[in-house]
């Protein structure tokens, strides 16, 4: 159990999840870096050996843990890593498992959600078996909230008050593209 | 006179009586509204050094940290008649860990998310409320606050976005606001500031993010930073050689609880957290001053001396709960002690002198498999390497990472001369250490967060354990066991020979007989209680107050227990309420 390769990779993903991605075209205080994901943005790896590279549908396989990503304004070569609220989890699921709200936002089973827990704003880092049930789910390790990405990332365990914000995707010219801004509020509750 | 004050007077002219008659009288009085506090009593140095019996103006009421009230109107005889006098919903969720502070009839509450509420301590009517506007990208691993510091006519709030804010005590208006560190790098504050001689002292949280801990002092008047002392010595400073390479730069040692203060020697005693990350193999050496108590000169911040409870911490056993200052009689002599029931499962009795902290005695107050003993001359615990987490190997140990007693405070009764400990027994845990890179602002534990376990010892018949110890002899006087709950709440003792504590998942506040441990009274509240009960007096009537509001680590333990399917309550509702009790006449 403790050497489960998927879980191990999740941990390394956790620690590097918010590593800053260098952008050659924009300086650090460019306001476009803080702007939330926009329609037409691409997604890039936010960590690992391919940090900064564009994520394509072929990078995602059913059964694998989510990829941590930043949106990228491709036209202006701006990675929107200026706010941790822009961090996104991207995962490929079996389209047959997606509910009626989730399926239209998915691109060939690939779905994306905000990586920020709606409880206290911690990063959602784990992809592990749910506390209740047998499916793997997103989990925030700060206070144990769990989200099911098959059902719009609704809360299935823990103190989180609402689902993760969803980021609709499409595949265009072989690339994974953001189809619309976040659906739902991003970030933790404040009171 | 404000409408609020009028309402108070209307109730006050009646003989104090908790009955439907009085309730009706109060309800028909003019409705209370928010407003400034009139005739506020400035909190002077003399009042803090010798507080009136009816007030609770410091974290543990007195600088010595004993958590003891000299009030005895509510006592072992009449506590059975104690009933709610008033309640107040804070409207905030998560862990309400602050004591209700009381200064001559005015109560100050703090809540998670950085709110401060001023209430009439007799009626529960609100004077004003301050709401901190927290950054939208802030994340809070510990969404809580443990109280405001009181000084003259000001209040001081330490926030989770790492600011220190001065408020006007009468109005709640912001007087100044200082950035202490950068929340984006995992620095945050949850403690009640300690104020001595016009210096507002706070210690930083964030050891789990690989920060370097510190205590910092600000001028109470204008917020000017006066000194900052790091809990991990830098190059050229004494103790630096207990670290390897650059480990000290990210070595933890956060100082996230309020210190205690010896006014005679002008020495502040501050508890220091564990080394970061958790596995000791990632920071070889003794790692001063982690898992220690440091003695600070409040005028300069200079570290006078220290005592390290255990070396090269590898269990997440920070020792941030500051030691109590108690005059002890032991082995035919009197001495000034420091008493600290540690997270490391050792009940520490130390001697404090102006120059040194000497080891006197130590014993295990809950089961542990980590220590083989304690070196009698030095007080250095002898570790069993089989139960010390290391890199690349699963290691289990007892007690769990939450320790024998976490941050919730013990209390010392000047009547019984016993120490009352909110202990947890029969919990163990473990993890596999992993070498992972540090990313500023991200958790840096040195293990998989999802593998951090809470296990139960075979045959365990209880978990929480309220203990009474005689610190002079080292003998346990009595204990009350909780078969179906952890005990995660601070303890308060009173001269009425009561020991008050919440901390259990059944939402109870309880009163025990300080001499015998007999359960005398209990009341189910809205949520679980993590913070400490207080005793205070207004117009000749004694009250007991506490905040009920479950969350943070009490919730984490509860989740772990529920997940372990050992039949414990898995649904403790959240939401903060101030409860105030008095004896029905």
Automatic annotation (TrEMBL), chain A:
InterPro entries recorded: Rieske_2Fe-2S, Rieske_2Fe-2S_sf, Rieske_Fe-S_prot, Rieske_Fe-S_prot_C
Cofactors named for this entry: [2Fe-2S] cluster
Record's keyword terms, sorted: 2Fe-2S, Disulfide bond, Iron, Iron-sulfur, Metal-binding
Domain (Rieske): residue spans on this chain: 85-178
GO-annotated molecular function: 2 iron, 2 sulfur cluster binding; metal ion binding
Keyword Amino-acid biosynthesis included in the entry's annotation: no
Any one GO cellular component localisation term in the record: membrane
Name by which UniProt lists this protein: Rieske domain-containing protein
Organism annotation: Bradyrhizobium oligotrophicum S58
Taxonomic lineage from the root: Bacteria, Pseudomonadati, Pseudomonadota, Alphaproteobacteria, Hyphomicrobiales
TrEMBL record, chain B:
Cofactor note: Binds 1 Ca(2+) ion per subunit. Binds 1 PQQ group per subunit.
Cellular component terms (Gene Ontology): membrane
Leader sequence segment: 1-34
Domain of life: Bacteria
Active site: 316 (proton acceptor)
Needed co-factor(s): Ca(2+); pyrroloquinoline quinone
InterPro entries linked: ADHI, PQQ_b-propeller_rpt, PQQ_MeOH/EtOH_DH, PQQ_rpt_dom, Quinoprotein_ADH-like_sf
Domain Pyrrolo-quinoline quinone repeat: 56-353, 488-544
Binding site for Ca(2+): 208, 274, 316
Pfam families attached to this UniProt entry: PQQ
GO terms for MF: calcium ion binding; oxidoreductase activity, acting on CH-OH group of donors
Record keywords: Calcium, Metal-binding, Oxidoreductase, PQQ, Signal
Residue sites binding pyrroloquinoline quinone per the record: 97, 146, 190
Annotated family: Belongs to the bacterial PQQ dehydrogenase family.
Name of protein: Alcohol dehydrogenase
Species in which this protein is naturally found: Bradyrhizobium oligotrophicum S58
